[in-house]
Amino acid sequence: MLALVSPALLVILALIVLPVGWLAWQSIYHDGFTLENYRRVFTEDIYWRSFALTFEISLAVTAIALLLGYPVAYLANSLPKGWSILILSLVVLPFWTSVLVRAYAWLALLQRTGVINQFLRYLDVISEPLALVHNTFGTVVATVHILLPFMVLPLYAAMQKIPGDLMQAGASLGASPSLTFCRVFLPLSLPGVLAGSTMVFVLCLGFYITPELLGGGRTVMVSMLVSRNVELYNQFGAASAVAVVLLLSVLAIFFVVSRFVALDRVLGQK
Amino acid sequence: MKMKQGFGLGCTLLGAIGLTGAATAAEQITFVSQGGAYQQAQTVAILDPSAKKLGITINQDSIPDAWPAIKTQVGSGKPIWDVVDTPTGYCLRGGEQGLIEKLDFSKIPNAAAMPEAYRSPYSVSYEFYSSVLAYSQKTFPKDAPNSWVDFWDVKKFPGRRALRNHPIATLEAALMADGVAPDKLYPLDVDRAFKKLEEIKPNITVWWTSGAQSAQLLNDGEVDMEMAWNGRVSAVAKEGAKVSFTYNQGILQSTSLCILKGAPNLDTAVKFLNEAVDPVHQANLPLHIDYGPGNPKAFETSVIKPERAAQLPSEPANAAKQALMSYAWWSSPAGEAAEKRWASFMQK
């Protein structure tokens, strides 16, 4: 058994444990043991602001992605096979386009002379262009678009596992479609909701290119702090400390979530 | 017999490979610049002619921001790059931190002949660019903003504005907007500069982070005026966008050549450094891109026509209208402190 899994263990050791360990080590060791990097992270308020902003944006993105993704997954689940394949392909298709390209596409759509503003002006709905991008709004819109597949796919997978006859049973006992949905379908799809939300939330915490391009310089997320630390303090220790704190907060989130739900069931196959 | 022949041939081949290997190893360098149109221009103007004249191979690499990579490479003890073209401040800071070789100017006569202000113990000016006030001619068909005082004057010049998300050149602009003369900027009054920046902050739509972004902002009409690098603005203008800029109160900046500490081909790198700032090679650069030569002697070679010279940031008359950035100040403790203060300014 050990012989069988040892290559996998080696890969994990080489690609995950060692780099992460090295990262953590760098954050506390620079010509001797130091907590200076962590002192900076915990005492300077720009770090607090960035962490707070990052969690706010991630929560907003997760909520919006859930609101948009749930009906899509529901539709894909309830339609005949051909249609559901079409819907899922449309969801997955953007996956094959680079995140950078999609960020620029949103820029072309949202900026002052962009398609949306020009259309609204053509319709005389607005007289001055709306500030749709170079702020937090633009960042959230583009991030939702990029992360939506990570919400829809786990939702769809969870919905697929709900036996259709349960709904029929509900209907045969006299419940209205909305009641069967609320009392039977929705609770059974919750593992998917949780899996999708966790996935989107955690991925969003580490977003870099999108806020950098669409945030206008003010939407400073944690990943941008990491890069700025390398540029600004010229030391990887400071950047590593930020990364370690982010990693620990993600692990903490997983821990809290796992207290309420069996995460292995949500993220695994069973 | 046949086998013997084969063996002999094999030996010759191996020997030849060994020889060429040795030859190229001795006469090649790896040169790193920032890529894009700029690196293409210097390849044609400076790198290829230098390689030919010296009989060396120049391997090229490009990276937008070489500083973290320099730190890692030299820190690991085995750098793979030799010569880097990077903002002058990094050469100075790197020199102080033991990442950059100290130069022996007796081996670099071309640089030794350059003005004192254009070189440091670790570096030689390679090309000049300028952080200028650029604006849309659509928004300002006449009476365009012409100074940082105008940029700060949101009543007289209404419109959306962008600045670089970086303190270098931005603090200088703020101080000039507050009435400091271009030649009296250093040492920078950092408190005063940040106070002046607070004033304009609500009117800044975008704090840009890359040159390409600044060009796009102006080209798409996302902003009406901004601080931008002169070459980026003229590139957009050449493509037909109605944009322009002024050298008045521009901040004259340079990138320099410096050599990584423990560079694998140190001797060849020094030879190349001398060749790269040769006045004739240097004069060729502005024929391909809108940046000025790092060696002012280039203007005396008659390669650059007077009307072309007039468009360049380091041309003497243009340079006189501008502030020459002090990289020595920016790499001093006060400069580093100002740089660190920027992050909290942006997030408040």
Describe this entry's structure for a reader.
The complex is a heterodimer of chains A (270) and B (348). Chain A has 270 residues and is an all-alpha fold. Chain A has one domain: MetI-like fold. Chain A is 78% helix and 0% strand. Chain A contains 13 helices and no strands. In chain A, helix 8 (164-172) packs antiparallel against helix 9 (177-205). Chain A starts with a helix and ends with a helix. The termini of chain B are far apart. With 348 residues, chain B is an alpha/beta fold. Chain B has helices at 2-26, 36-54, 67-75, 88-96, 109-112, 148-152, 170-177, 190-200, 211-219, 230-238, 266-276, 279-284, 306-309, 316-320, 327-330, 333-346, and strands spanning 28-33, 57-62, 83-87, 119-120, 123-136, 161-164, 204-208, 225-229, 243-259, 292-293, 323-324. In chain B, 44% of the residues lie in helices and 20% in strands. In chain B, helix 7 packs across helix 8. The model of chain B is unreliable at 1-25 (pLDDT under 50). The longest helix of chain B has 25 residues, at 2-26. In chain B, strand 1 (28-33), helix 2 (36-54) and strand 2 form a beta-alpha-beta unit. The radius of gyration of chain B is 23 Å and the shape is globular. In chain B, strands 1, 2, 3, 4, 5, 6, 7, 8, 9, 10 and 11 form an 11-stranded mixed β-sheet that branches. Chain B is built from 16 helices and 11 strands. The A-B interface holds A 44-46, 49-50, 107, 111-113, 131, 134, 212-213, 216-218, 220, 228, 230-234, 236 and B 65, 67-68, 71, 93, 97, 160, 165, 205-209, 213, 216, 220-222, 339-340, 342-344, 346-347. Chain A: Its main location: membrane. Chain A: Residues 51-257 form the ABC transmembrane type-1 domain.
